[in-house]
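Supplementary Note 3. Input sequence used for the single-chain structure prediction.
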Amino acid sequence: MNQLPLPLEGITVVAVEQAVAAPFATRQLADLGARVIKVERVDGGDFARGYDTAARGLASHFVWCNRGKESIALDLKDPRGLAVVRRLVAGADVFVQNLAQGAATRLGLDAATLCAAHPRLVAVDISGYGAGGPYADKRAYDMLVQCEAGLVSVTGTPEQPVKAGIPAADIAAGMYAFSGVLAALVRRGATGRGGPVEVSMLEALAEWMGHPLHHALHGGTAPERTGLAHAVIAPYDAYPTADGGRVLLSVQNDREWRRLAEQVLGMPELGTDPAFATNAARVAHRSRTDALVGRALGGLDADEAVRRLEAAGIACARLRDVHELAGHPQLAARERWREVGSPVGPLRALLPPVTLPGGEEPRMGDVPALGEHTGAVLRAVGMTDDEIAALRRDGVAA
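The predicted structure, written as discrete structure tokens, is reproduced below.
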């Protein structure tokens, strides 16, 4: 039986994008078969290209968020550069932008304007705080939004709040932009009309704050910061092992506690001891509970600790660093690694987490050089070589 095609085969996306939120959304569209034309500035392109040089000279953020795209470099402040984008949009299915607040509107590239001119177009505006309200014009970098959304307040230790180690606000906005595009395309299939899609980083991350938010709204207090421990379950923490590792375990109910006490701690009497027999008691005596578990695991190496916990039916995990993630045996066993091309040669990359059995594998294309596809894309919209050369000569295209 023939494999199903990628679900976005034949869809064209034009993106005037930068940093993480919009590029992460459009990269996922590219992985699923869409053609994504990335419009970059002529003077250095997407500024994420300059974040670092960790990926063999390329920026790690850019490599992560921009594979499989065609890069064209245009000066949108020049009417000729803007006219090229308008020609591209006229033939596109989706337009995505995350320019600074108000910039897209000044250029006539906001979702409302474009959808009025092109009724079948799905046009996405990604912003920090949304188009209206007192925060509309505030700068909205990821860590700033993490603070405004309260994520930092619930992450860290009792003494010290910390930001998430990944750009959580950008990723949240990118995920909702991605799913919003898919929903709008389904609606267009039924109605023939596209329409605007609006996503703000604050609102996306506020949704992800649902558990602590509802805990505070309806319970009166926000969950306490507890480091790696769980705020309302014990034992649920990471414990050092004899070989320098750390193993996290989670006891979800009192039956599991009795198994842990008997088979791992070697102290079956703790299963019925009133100070430990219930979760409420263990939370009330958290330091004593953790000390008992820590003493038992501290005498084992990580492999043996995991083996004993799993034999007892206790949920557990190793506390891995990112190098250990790159070598994770589960990712290797499931063959999740691929290589993608780039201006510096092949780079390792993970398959997208959405698997569509019976269909083609996601299209993990090359990471583009700045302006790598400018000539080809401009020719495809009808420009002659002389016209393209004039744009390059005048600094309108690169």
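The two ends are 45 Å apart (CA to CA). The chain has a mean pLDDT of 96.
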